Amino acid sequence: MRAESASGEGIAGAIRSPQRLIAAAVALLIGLFGAAMLTPARAAADGETYVVATDITFAPFEFQDVDGKFVGIDIDLIHEIAANQKFNITIKPLGFDAALQAVQANQADGVIAGMSITDERKKVFDFSDPYFESGVQMAVLDSNQDIKSYADLKGKRVAVKNGTEGAEFAQSIKDKYGFQIVSFADSASMFEEVKTGNSVAIFEDYPVLNYGIEQGNGFKTVTPKEKGSSYGFAVNKGRNAELLAKFNAGLKELKDSGRYDEIMEKYLGEGASEADNSFFGLLSSTFPFLMAGLKMTLILTVVSIAIALVLGIIFGLCRVSRSIILRAIGTTYVDIFRGTPLLVQAFFIYFGIPTALGFQMTALTAGIITLSLNAGAYMTEIVRGGIQSVDKGQMEAARSLGIGYLPTMRKVILPQAVRTMIPSYVNQFVITLKDTSILSVIGIAELTQTGRLIIARNYQSFTMWLIIGIIYFIVIMALTKLSDRLEKRMVK
Amino acid sequence: MTQLVPEAAAAEPEGTVKIRIEGLKKSFGDLVVLDGIDTTISKGEVVCVIGPSGSGKSTFLRCLNKLEDITAGKVTVDGFDLTDRRVDLDKVRQHIGMVFQHFNLFPHMTVIDNVTLAPLLTKKMDKAAAEKRAMELLGQVGLAEKANVKPATLSGGQKQRVAIARALAMNPSIMLFDEATSALDPEMVGDVLQVLRDLAEGGMTMVVVTHEMGFAREVASRVIFMADGNIVEDDTPSQVFDSPKHPRLQEFLSKVL
């Protein structure tokens, strides 16, 4: 799979060099409150702990089992090799693109994520010996009797996952067989596309297809698998050579001992799972994970919105200041964070800045910084609006008494501004709560990410997204009602 | 009611120049509102400023504590040049009380908190002393029993008397009144003017922008008539009201009296 590195390398590559200036500027902002949370770059040595990044939803290579533990061929292999070669590992499930970027940004020491060894990738990564021979295969719905070969795809739509070898293979034959390609970011959406009937077939690595079929996802294969490439473990080009050597040595020992075959059999062999996939069955079996995800969502929201309030007051005061410099600072901050997508901000802060400046930060830190700065920009406008809604005479009366500008703001203007700000503030709280779901892209296990992990294992996307949607709805409605009450009491 | 006037203000010798205004000009963009004002205001004077609306009276008053930026000229208060950037305006303003047409009480605070806010913030006075002084002042303006209510429950006249007490709590030596009775119902005007009268009798230096000609005639030691951004007449009340010289003043008085 994943021959084309455009998505993986592209984003990190683009961020890496040309934007150091902006990186420095943003880092300055982050320095305000982020410095304490940063960990220094580590030099991995013998017996030390390596950080290994991986995908999150690529069963059977990596996925969460029903107990919420990360398992799969890749995960078992790297654990066994670590034990065999006597080093420690910390697994960072980030998602495929993010995992590659994390290694390039030196946020992780290596990546094992069902990653095909390609010439393109060899330019930026050093690969281990291949540990798995893969190959692309086509799958259609069980009920589909029309598609028996590539030729039957003529005039139809085919679903693929971005940057995969399946996608590349489909691209290479689409003109010959006359079909259209639709691309998706994750496997679950790709399968769903076919289930809804929008597309008729998918192209994906055969072990992934087979795993899904065994989980009862309602697909079947009708054509033989294509000859494919090999998966390898990778480290950043020119770094962690000793980790690579240990991986190769460990892999060889596992193969010699037969342990390698046992792992393969465990995940690729027969043995379909028996699970209750009804709404309530899924709700009860996934409830503890969903609640843990919800807790993370709420932590992210509350911490970020609190910091955003402080930023909003500081920059909001800048915005209404008589000093043209302070006003420019406030305006620039608001323009930057309102003028760029949150997703880009998250990637930039988590991958771009650490790469440019050579340090590491956790996804949670990056997530809180991103959300705080983003919500802070909107809070700035809310604070500005609140201050400007207070009658000008209030400022004049206080100043005429000889009270300074800032004490006047603190004692006279802001307490009155807060009243008009409350509805907007609650609105921003709700928006930020929903925005936390975007942070799933940097691997934070909040509610949406938890849902993606569960779906990657059980393929029950319709029911799971319904459950997750209901949870968000209940929480947001509860918060809204609570704030209505609060508002009524404060206005009194 | 001499207690209304702070001892320090009362103790200054008569005739000391409190405010000196030299060539004061103020424009908003192209609109010239004050076109070169020259006058002085001495200790103990009660100067009433009258004139048609748009004549620049309120702007003139707001330049005396620099609530408005001064376009050109000089305003010197107690020897401090307000146009000098090195002068600490907050310090100067602590000696100049101001009362506004629309009261501008702080609606989120009780009456007594309105009165004690500035002394507590700027003078590091202890709370008990500030509240004691505030209660005295509220008693003087007849509102002691309203100390713990929010301004929203007061009538206009009561609000304005609280605003006066708030300004006096800083022990100013000059008081500026910007159409202090214009927003009041007629039956409220008397109470507020009585407080002004008490202040004047106590020797407070006052600049009063007003439409109350009767009050000006009775209380003022000097009346300034402004028109088109200039001082047109500046004389005793009897001269201004009984033998106006300038046609603009004659025309104005014929309309308002």
From TrEMBL, chain B:
Transmembrane segments: none annotated. The keyword Zinc does not apply. It catalyses: a polar amino acid(out) + ATP + H2O = a polar amino acid(in) + ADP + phosphate + H(+). Its EC number is 7.4.2.1. InterPro entries: AAA+_ATPase (IPR003593), ABC_ATPase_HisP-typ (IPR030679), ABC_transporter-like_ATP-bd (IPR003439), ABC_transporter-like_CS (IPR017871), MetN_ABC_transporter-like (IPR050086), P-loop_NTPase (IPR027417). Keywords: ATP-binding, Nucleotide-binding, Transport. This is ABC-type polar-amino-acid transporter. It comes from Mycolicibacterium fortuitum.
